[in-house]
Amino acid sequence: AYGVKTDGIRELLHFKLSRSESRTEWEAFLNSLYRRGLVGEALKLVVTDGCKGLKAALDTVYPYPERQLCWAHKMRNVANYLPKKYREECLTQARLIYQASSKREAVRRFREWESAWQGVALKAVKCIERDLERLVSFFDFPEEHWKKIRTTNAIERALREVRRRTYATGCFAHPESCERTIYAVVAHMNRKWRERALKGF
Q1: Which of 174, 113, 108 is nearest to 136 (CA)?
Q2: Which residue spans within 35-167 are E strands per DSSP?
Q3: CB 109 within 8 A of CB 100
Q4: What is the pLDDT of residues 101-145, one digit of tens each?
Q5: 39 touches 19 (CB < 8 A)
Q6: Using an 8 Å Cβ cutoff, are 10 and 198 in contact?
Q7: How does residue 90 score in pLDDT terms, banded at 50, 70 and 90?
Q8: What is the pLDDT of residues 166-196, one digit of tens each?
Q9: Which residues pair with 12 in a beta bridge?
């Protein structure tokens, strides 16, 4: 779990070793955050990938904040539905949706993209259409925040660093030794972020 506070300080809040991304595992994770004090009264937006287990767990633990689906994950999903010969052109046009100047403009651009591509790549169009409402939530927030809140890229970068360190070790004697390695990465990133608040928050 990664958060941005009202002063622009980013922080990795929690991590958990898990065997799956089931609803049960995600609920345990989110309930741990809740018990530690993140009750969500000031929580404005939750940005996630499309994991069904996480969605269901959020419905239970943090049902009220706005939700934003990650555009980076969504574009990868759309690409999977596209024939190779159309992929670059279709994705370039789809990116115009989240690059719009407002939510209304984004919806208009989606309708244009839908009209142009539904005859060629209906599954790709449906992939965005079914989640459109939660793909444009970020437009309800200050414009200077948009690039930081329309994807989960920040946490993905953190996970890459965790994987780099854990893969280098190869094998851990027990879960606690793995947790210590991950904690060291998390603590290092949090120290760096405390020195560089995001502007505009």
Answers
A1: 108
A2: 45-48, 66-69
A3: yes
A4: 999 999 999 999 999 999 999 999 999 999 999 999 999 999 999
A5: no
A6: yes
A7: very high
A8: 888 878 888 999 999 999 999 999 999 999 9
A9: 2
Tokens 């965790």 — which residue?
A: 162
**Would you call 4 helix, strand, or coil by DSSP?**
strand
CA distance 94 to 75: 8
Distance separating alpha carbons of residues 79 and 124, to the nearest angstrom:
7
Contact between 83 and 121 under an 8 Å Cβ cutoff? The reply is yes
Find all residues with CB under 8 Å of 164, minimum gap 6, and list them.
none
* Beta strands 45-48 and 10-12, pairing class: unpaired
Tell me the three state secondary structure of residue 107. Answer: helix
| Lookup: tokens for 201 | 């928050």
Encoded tokens for 37: 């004090």
Give CA 106 to chain center in angstroms.
Answer: 19
Distances (CA, A) of 108 to 5, 89, 114, 115, 199: 32, 19, 10, 11, 30
Entry field: residues in the chain: 201
- 3 state SS of 128: helix
Smallest Cα–Cα separation from 32: which of 14, 59, 49, 53? 14
**From CA 113, how far away is CA 124, in angstroms rounded?**
11
147's tokens: 């690039």
At 49, list the tokens: 């990938």
The token pair at 63 is 């049902």
